[in-house]
Design brief:
Keywords: Cell membrane, Membrane, Phosphate transport, Transmembrane, Transmembrane helix, Transport. It holds the Pfam family BPD_transp_1. Its main location: membrane. A hairpin with a 6-residue loop joins β1 and β2. 67% of the residues lie in helices and 1% in strands. It has a two-stranded antiparallel sheet with strand order 1-2. The chain starts with 27 loop residues before the first helix and ends in a 9-residue tail after the last helix. It contains eleven helices and two strands, in the order αββαααααααααα. The protein is mostly helical. The protein has a single domain, classed as MetI-like (MetI-like fold, Orthogonal Bundle). The protein is globular.
Length: 332
């Protein structure tokens, strides 16, 4: 009489090794993919190192011949006799205009992303998302021309209003009667330019928020805002930070739009409504063609500072995300 085999006598299930697969990248396709991936990473590092090396070498040539302090001089005349150039005004103008842009753009971008992803009906959300994508495709020179012809004249009234009611803050005090070719106008223009970039990234992150978390919160009686506050925004924090850093990177390095709108000067003025100021990118674009070899080295030195600032900003963002594990969407 035959008996059934015990469960322990059953043959082991097939494994990957039985099908010819291996744990290591021994197949030709795996080797090619590994080589291409590794080569891409190494190429990126080589390019970054080459850029840093070039900027450092040319900057050292200029700074070694400079008779003033490169970090604190409020003048840009490397072709003078004696030469004198510094980045104090450029650092201030670049950082202030970028901060203004971020303060305006990030909250608006979060609001637009939430509206598209969680509030607007699909028939309305798709056209709005398409319009946001179109804004990202507009060339920066078009933004600059629009800012110079339309935005600058219409901001005179806003500048006067801010000066009338907020002059006590000092930064909104207007001490001259010049038109609105100032850092405040540049910040507003940069906010408009970086808004689609930040919005698109945040929108995609919000769309990936776990639906089960949202449905569970609604089932427990949470309102729509409580669902957003407790489920969607915590999940998307890493995306918000990443999107903000992308926008900040463009704001720091924007050239043509700033060059068209801003009235450049090397007078350090903490009144952001006064005409004047300067940024790294705008100064390089305005002075590069007319500069001699030493002048170009000086401009490259200022570009090195902008390069370092951008690296520090992105490094700080990555450090914030790494230290706060709850920013990760997987842990939301």
């Amino acid at each position: 009489m035959e008996t059934e085999a015990a469960p322990n006598d059953a043959p082991p299930p097939p494994t990957l090794e039985h099908h010819g697969a291996s744990k290591g990248p021994k197949q030709i396709g795996d080797r090619i993919f590994l080589g291409l991936s590794r080569g891409s990473g190494i190429t990126l590092l080589v390019i970054m190192a080459a850029i840093a090396g070039f900027l450092s070498y040319r900057a050292a040539l200029a700074i070694s011949k400079d008779e003033t302090n490169f970090l604190t001089t409020f003048e840009w005349n490397p072709q003078g006799d004696p030469s004198s150039f510094g980045i104090a005004v450029l650092v201030y103008g670049t950082i202030v205009s970028s901060i203004i842009a971020m303060v305006i753009a990030v909250p608006i971008a979060i609001g637009i992303a939430l509206f598209i992803s969680h509030f607007a009906p699909r028939r309305l959300a798709s056209p709005i998302a398409y319009l946001v994508d179109l804004l990202a495709a507009v060339p920066s020179i078009i933004y600059g021309l629009w800012g110079a012809v339309f935005l600058v004249p219409y901001l005179d009234g806003l500048n006067k209003w801010l000066n009338e009611y907020f002059a006590w803050t000092y930064i909104f005090e207007k001490t001259n009667e010049g038109i609105a070719r100032n850092l405040f106008t540049v910040g507003i223009l940069l906010a408009i330019m970086i808004l689609p970039i930040i919005t698109n990234v945040i929108r995609e992150v919000f769309l990936q928020s776990p639906k089960m978390h949202e449905e569970a919160a609604l089932a427990l009686g949470a309102t729509r805002w409580e669902v957003i506050r407790m489920s969607v925004i915590p999940f998307g924090r890493s995306g918000i930070i990443s999107a903000s850093m992308l926008g900040l990177g463009r704001a720091l390095g924007e050239t043509m739009a700033v060059a068209v709108v801003l009235s450049p000067s090397f007078l350090l003025d903490f009144h952001i409504l006064d005409a004047g100021g300067g940024t790294f990118a705008q100064n390089i674009a305005a002075k590069f063609n007319e500069a001699n070899e030493f002048g170009r080295d000086a401009l490259i030195a200022s570009g090195l500072v902008l390069f370092i600032i951008t690296l520090l900003v992105n490094g700080a963002a990555r450090a914030i995300i790494a230290r706060r594990k709850e920013y990760s969407g997987a842990n939301a």
